Amino acid sequence: xxxxxxxxxxxxxxxxxQPTPEQILAFHPSADVAARFYELVATERDQPLTPAExxxxxTFLYIEHMxxxxxxxxxxxxxxxxx
Length: 83
Hints:
The protein is built from four helices and no strands. It has 83 residues and is mainly alpha-helical. The longest helix has 32 residues. The chain is elongated and about 50 Å long.
């Protein structure tokens, strides 16, 4: 089994609780997860990332993309519900 990154674990814990559209819109990563993301970005500016760090950064970016898609869908669902 592949070890999950901190951001993956955080999002999985969030999603298994079957969040409402409002909760999806309000979701933000924890301060620890955000700090790790910014740490990787800063490191990448100064030097090449290790392969493990590069995979971790790509995971962050993919999950951010998926959360944006979920937030757009949640926003649309709320708009439809209101009309």
